[in-house]
Amino acid sequence: MRIVIALGGNALLRRGEHPDAAVQVANIDRVVGAIAALAHDHEIVVTHGNGPQIGLLAGESAADPALSAPYPLDLLGAQTQGMIGSLLVRGLHDALPGRRTVALVTHTLVRADDPAFEHPTKFIGQVYPYDIASALARRRGWHIAADTTGWRRVVPSPAPDGILETETVHELLVGGSIVVCAGGGGVPVTADLDTGALTGVEAVVDKDLTAALLAEDLKADFLLILTDVPCVYTEYGTAGQRPVLGATPAELRGGDFPEGSMGPKAEAAARFVERTGGLAAIGALDAAYEIVHGTSGTLVRPELPVV
């Protein structure tokens, strides 16, 4: 079975942890263990979030007096692909001796006229109290929004229109490699309508929606979205919270999940299942093997045919 795994941005940095390199290195074994358990029997493509990492780099860049202007988000996203990709490749190399693993810097095509550029919604970076977040927003020209435990920077998140390296990923898979790609949703670029020339844009593409598009284009059998909760919940965080253990795409969309957290994951799972007839699931990183084998998480299945 061909599985595309979308790791949450908290895979290497959990909420509340310091964004030190040593912390991320220490967390890699947990991530690699979840992937390796599936890689013995399946073709694996790994995508990953980069919210904490790109937020850290963006803050450092904005505060660096040696720079005349901060580095743009597309280049910072490429940096995070290299860093996180290297950690995953090293970990998988040690966990799966003899198995080839490669990290590929990946570019995602977006539309220059996407309305998302006027309405930033994608969280990046760490959580702050409101007074600190608002001060940073004034000083650095950021947009901020409330997250579950505080306030964070938000940036535009245009819809993925295509992944430029899909054919390369497919060739690597057929050759037996585990492929780490599309990190942080891929480096966002637009293409000139006349020449096709690529230009990086100041945005972060949602990694789950990119993973769904990649899985569709690769004709994957299963899209596995891993996060920090055991499954999807309706009315999450309230007294009426209820687990959703199985759903069709229509049922999942009816859950009205928050745009900045579970919403894109639910939409990604629904799109993949609708467009391919395959299966998708959302659940906890530590239960990746159990999710694929139907004993954990939220399984998203195709609509039953009308008879």
Describe the structure.
The chain is of the alpha/beta class. Helices cover 36% and strands 23% of the residues. The chain contains nine helices and 17 strands. The strands form four sheets. It has an eight-stranded mixed β-sheet, sandwiched between helices. The protein has a four-stranded mixed β-sheet with strand order 8-4-10-11. A three-stranded antiparallel β-sheet has the order 5-7-6. Strand 6 (143-146) and strand 7 form a beta hairpin. The radius of gyration is 19 Å and the shape is globular. The mean pLDDT is 92.
Short summary:
This protein is 36% helix and 23% strand.
Estimated structural class = alpha/beta
Read across the widest sheet, the strand sequence of neighbours is: 3-9-2-1-12-16-17-15
Quote the average pLDDT. 92
Quaternary = single chain
Rg from alpha-carbon coordinates: 19 Å
Task: Report the order of strands and helices.
Answer: EHEHHEEEHEEEHEEEHEEEEHHEHE
- pLDDT below 50 for ≥5 consecutive residues: which ranges? none
What composes the largest sheet? 8 strands, mixed
Strands, count: 17
Give the termini separation: 29 Å
The general outline is globular
Give the number of helices.
9
Strand content: 15-25%
Helix content: 25-40%
List keywords for this structure.
alpha/beta; 307 residues; single chain; 9 helices; 4-stranded mixed β-sheet
Ordered list of secondary-structure elements with their pairings:
Elements: E1 2-7, H1 21-39, E2 43-48, H2 51-63, H3 73-95, E3 101-103, E4 107-109, E5 122-128, H4 130-140, E6 143-146, E7 151-155, E8 162-163, H5 166-174, E9 178-180, E10 187-191, E11 198-200, H6 207-217, E12 222-227, E13 232-234, E14 242-244, E15 246-247, H7 249-253, H8 262-276, E16 279-284, H9 288-292, E17 298-300
Parallel strand pairs: 1-2, 1-12, 2-9, 3-9, 4-10, 12-16, 15-17
Antiparallel strand pairs: 4-8, 5-7, 6-7, 10-11, 13-14, 16-17
Helix pairs in contact: 1-3, 2-3, 6-8
